Amino acid sequence: MVEFDSMALQPSSPVVQPSVVPRHVAIIMDGNGRWAAQRGLPRTEGHRRGADAVQRAVEACGEMGVDFLTLYAFSSENWKRPPAEVEALMFLLDRFLRNKLDEMLKKNVRFQAIGRLTDLPTSCQESLHRAIERTAGNTGLTLILALSYGGREEIVDGVKSVVRDVQDGRLDPATITPDVFSQHLYTRHWPDPDLLIRTSGELRLSNFLLWQLSYAEFWVTPKLWPDFNKSDLEEACAAFAQRERRFGGV
Ligand code: FPP
User: Fold this and answer.
1) For residue 50, what is the domain's CATH number?
2) Would residue 207 show up in a list of annotated catalytic residues for this protein?
3) What pLDDT, in 10s, does the model give residues 91-120?
4) Is 127 among the domain residues?
5) Is 7 helix (H, G, I), strand (E, B) or coil?
6) Apex CA 199: angle with CA 195 and CA 203, to 5°?
């Protein structure tokens, strides 16, 4: 049976590992638009403040000893937004990658990205590749930005990769297992997320890491993303530490 204690800050199970920090945290950063609307500001201002919250989340995860942080920064579906909003999001991403690079180098953060990255404007692709290359030797937090990312698209790309390997004789179909298939996903280098955080109170996956979140613990807060801070992350991690993870066992 699937247990989903939505919005729950209280443990749904007995305490088993009180001080466990999730190794991999994934976040659906939602509510930038509503944050702006509540203040009579343009949506882009919500995104700008959302980028500040990204910086806070990266720092907080680094300080808490999280190894991997995956942020849903731009989905495959986000291309449907008005062109001016898409442009503003790409501008913020580009600026973040350029302006924060030195700080990320100092903080030992390693940049990575998943998604159909060639969809991004050339300047963003360049900033992204530069950030990835320059931080490749860092050994602290790995920050994985999901950009032009969709879980279904990733699975389709994974299937195509499997088919190519079978056709080229590198893979025997009889040997395909979930672990083998995982090696054909964008995320093959990293463990699956342990904890999924979603802001703004929505209870949806929104096409995020559909394969990888199979056994993640969910934590949802009504707070809007631009207001998310270190104490929220600590609260999420405290709730995570109270969960009993059975991975389908008893
Ligand atoms: C969801 O809020 C958020 C996004 C679609 C984009 C997330 C982008 C950022 C946090 C800023 C830039 C990112 C980086 C990595 C610097 P929404 O617009 O869907 O909010 P709403 O549901 O209230 O309308």
Assistant:
1) 3.40.1180.10
2) no
3) 999 999 999 999 999 999 999 999 999 999
4) yes
5) coil
6) 80
Reported confidence tier of residue 20, pLDDT bands at 50, 70, 90:
confident
Where would I find the H helices in 3-42? 32-38
Residue of 5, 67, 78, 165 marked catalytic:
78
Q: Give the chain's domain count.
A: 1
Give domain status of residue 184, yes or no. Answer: no
CA gap 120, 128 in Å, rounded: 10
Closest ligand 1 atom to the C-alpha of 71?
A: 15
On whether the pTM is more than 0.85, the answer is yes
For residue 75, give the amino acid letter. Answer: S
Q: Does residue 59 fall inside a structural domain?
A: yes
Q: Amino acid identity, residue 109?
A: V
User: Hey, whose CA ends up nearest to atom 22 of ligand 1?
Assistant: 31
Provide the pLDDT for residue 19: 59
Specify if 2 maps to a domain: no
Reduced to 3 states (helix: H, G, I; strand: E, B; else coil), residue 112 is: strand
Q: Pull the structure tokens for residue 216.
A: 């993640």
The answer to whether the CB of 34 is under 6 A from ligand 1 is yes
46 Cα: distance to centroid of ligand 1 (angstroms): 8
Ligand 1 near 78 CB (within 6 A): yes
The owner of tokens 């404007």 is 121
Q: pLDDT tens-digit profile of 194-239? A: 999 999 999 999 999 999 999 999 999 999 999 999 999 999 999 9
Task: Please give the pLDDT value at position 245.
Answer: 83
Question: How far apart (Å, rounded) are the C-alpha atoms in residues 218 and 239?
Answer: 10
Average pLDDT, the chain: 93
The CA-CA-CA angle for residues 233, 94, 102, to 5°, reads: 70
First-to-last alpha carbon distance for the chain, in angstroms, is: 11
Write out the residue range of the structural domain in which residue 223 sits. 17-152+191-241
